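Continuing from yesterday's entry. The apo prediction looked reasonable, so today I'm repeating it with adenosine-5'-diphosphate included to see how the binding region is handled. Same sequence as before; SMILES copied from the compound registry.
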Amino acid sequence: MNYLKMAWRNTLRNRARSLITMASVFLAIFLALITRSMQIGSYDNMINNIVGAFTGNIQVHKSGYWDEKIIDNVFSYNDRLVNYIKSIDNVSAIAPRVETFALASYGNKTKGVMVNGIDPDAEDKFSKLKSKLVKGEYLNNDQEGVLLGSSLAENLKLSVGDSIVILGQGYHGSSAAGLYAVIGIVKFPSPDLDKRLMYMPIKYAQEYCSLDNQITTLALKLEDDKNNHQVKEQILSRFNNSDIEVMDWRELTPELAQQIEADNGQGIIMLAILYLIVAFGIFGTLIMMINERVREFGVMLAIGMRHYKIVTLVFFETLIIGFVGVVVGVLFSLPIIAYFHNNPYQYTGEMAKIMEQYGMEPVMPFAFESGFFLSQAITVFIIIVIMLIIPVISIARLKTIKALRA
Amino acid sequence: MESVIKVKDLYKIYDETSVEVRAINGVDIEINEGEFTAVVGPSGSGKTTLLNMIGGLDKPTSGNIMIGGQNLALMSSSKLIDFRMHNIGFIFQAYNLIPVLTAIENVEFVMHLQGISYRERRARAKELLEAVGLGDRLNSRPAKLSGGQQQRVAVARALASRPRFILADEPTANLDSKSTENLLDIMYQLNIKEKATFIFSSHDQRVVNKARRVINVEDGKIMSDITK
Ligand SMILES: Nc1ncnc2c1ncn2[C@@H]1O[C@H](COP(=O)(O)OP(=O)(O)O)[C@@H](O)[C@H]1O
Ligand SMILES: [Mg+2]
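Holo prediction written out below.
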């Protein structure tokens, strides 16, 4: 007769109470797993979308560019920089850009646009720009021409083959102007981007702004966003802090970062409340279980069972209850999480709007991480251990004679 | 005969705020191996208090209890638990079997604590349960047994670990007269066959009649000590 078997029989002694306690553990684990894999999945999705669509995990600018986005704030795009950044582990793609605001006219229409000078191949690798093409042709480094967002083209009432005039600020106070043929139309999921963006090969953008081999933005994509701090540090350690600034997506899109943070905070509070309820449930069960068995423990002490062995027994009893709850919770949530991992949930309402605004698909694939199942199981285990502290102390303090009289 | 228990100048005084109760008021006893001894006296005379102190469950106010040459007063509480496991068998008035264990598991329990192998303890538990007439109820839980049967399991449990002596505080108080007689017969036989030393308390004359030695207690003092 080992303690585990004895513990198992003790949990069967008051079946209703054990079942209720197991059910509370089950419910907590189940809800925790479902809601957290939902949340973490949606954050991953958002981050991947942001990173994939435009911003990148990290951007490098000339110091001060982000606060004052003028064309004077450019830095030299040279081989030394490129080679160094490409050599950093985790950097999977880079995209150099010249971003500048300009007025675009066609016929009697004029609109404000964001001119993006890009390396067509690098940009396609980075943000799959080519796949957004809905009309005409994609850019080519040696062809002077531009791509327009589809809403922008509509607003200006022009199409592929037409020519567009743009006018803006060039380097060091020079004025910038040019006439470009529209060679393609691209469509962005984000309406905001779609009515502002204009792309041209970087060479012509530099010409337009009177730049040499300089850029405003170098966007970096990482294999894993978790490493973004290290990568930032590595870049900053190599280049002078006063020359360049290195920003991650949290700084580049603070509203999104705040949205995720707030949502994540809510999620964690909900989890904490959930687990607090479970903790009290377990505690109540333990206290009742011990109070009604004081005399039994007294007999055990009398016939030679040491306190720590009784504690072991009670520990196993609690563990069994927790274990059954956790296992059943995992078994029930697993297929649900797996299903929504493969068939993402579609967002509606406010969240969908925010996501579209950032150029993201409004879907939520559930995160499927084995580590999360483990961490929840460990959380329950830790709760059990904490809730056992007081009962264990009360068992350890039991006096045989008093317990026998109970 | 070797003496198993030596009690000297024993006192137990309860300080019930101002009115002190002298539950044991100066007791000397010596108990030898193989005895079948009854401690008798009216309710409140101090039988339970005396047995609890001899069993190392309760601490005396003053005086000495030596068991097999060892002084109980010098033992830490955890040492005392181990000491009880190896040296003392208990039979309680309310049977007090472990409810989730079957009859045979209850009997095995202390042997398990002692670290005796499964085969050995199983064999002894079975033998003892057969000796107390429960060979056919080995796998019954206590709840499925009558009071008399439960108390016979308790007797088997007390003997299982081959203790130096067995303490039984009013073991028949909850039993009908037939079960009482049956239990005492079994205890008597085991006393002979297993050479087990029994000390039991009672205020039932029929129980007292079975004892070979009768210690009479009143107001915490020994009034008479007669060996037949
Ligand atoms: N825990 C205690 N606190 C105070 N007085 C007690 C306690 N236990 C027993 N007594 C008193 O000690 C005396 C002896 O009791 P006890 O040993 O139980 O007698 P018996 O078992 O012979 O009936 C009684 O007067 C009883 O009231
Ligand atoms: Mg009594």
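Comparison notes:
- The longest helix of chain A spans residues 15-53.
- Chain A has two domains: 2-51+256-404, 64-242.
Will overlay with the apo model tomorrow.
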